[in-house]
Write a structure and sequence with these properties.
about 240 residues; mainly beta; Neuraminidase; 2 domains; four-stranded antiparallel β-sheet; 3 helices; about 30% strand; globular
Amino acid sequence: MKAIKKEAPQLNQQAMWRDPSSTAFYTWGGITSYFAQPPPVEIWKFGVDGSGGGAWAKQTPKNVVTLSKLVRATEGAFTQSKDVGYFLGGFASYQTDTSVTGDSTYLALPGIVAFNMTSGEFTNSSTTGLNNFGTLVGGSSQFVPFGPNGLLLFLGGGQSSVLTSWSAWTDVDFNNLSLYDPISESSSIPLGARKTGWLGVLFTNILDSPKVVRAGDYWLSANEARTFLRSRSPGTE
C-alpha cells in the first residue's frame, strides 16, 4: 500500500467524476473542516501512473469565465455519463465559498453544473421545474443509460428557498422521482411512485441491461410516464 499526499485543497464531501480514460478522476465542490476559509473555486484531477501512484493537478477549463461565476457547494446530487460530470444543487456557506459571508448563512443553490471531461467546458443550467425552488440538498443522482442521450435521475434529499438555514429544508419523499434530459435541458418529469414494485423492475432492467424498453412492458403512473416508457431507442453505454 502506498500513501499519496493530496496536493489538492483539503475539502470534505466532494463530488468525484471518473475520467473517460478510466486512468484519472476529477473532484468538484466540497466544504472545509474546522470552520476554515475555503480555497478558490477550482477543479482538480488525479491521474494514476500505472505503478500504484499518481499525482494531483489543477485543471484550467476551456471557459474560465464560466468557472469564475460558479459558487462552490457541498451535498449536491452528482453523477456522470461517459464523459460529462453533473452536480445538482447542494448548499453554499462561508465554508464552501468566499462569496458567502456570515456563519449562519446557508444558500440552497439552484442549477445543475456540468463539466465535459473531454472538451474541458463547464455549463450551468436551470433546474426550474425540479420542485418549487429548483433546489436539492443531500439528494442522490444516477445516470440512466436510456435512449440516445441518457437521462439523469434524481431522488431523495431536501428542498428549500435559496436563502435558508441549517437543516431548514423539507425532505423530498419518494412519491416523486425527477428525470432530466441533459441534452435538451428539459424540465424534470415527475413520475408517480405509487407502484414502487414497478419502479424497481423498471430501473433494474434499464441499469443492469440497457436494451430496448417497449411500450406497455412497464407502467408507472401511466399518464405521466408515457413519454419516458414509450421510447424505443436503445440504451447508451
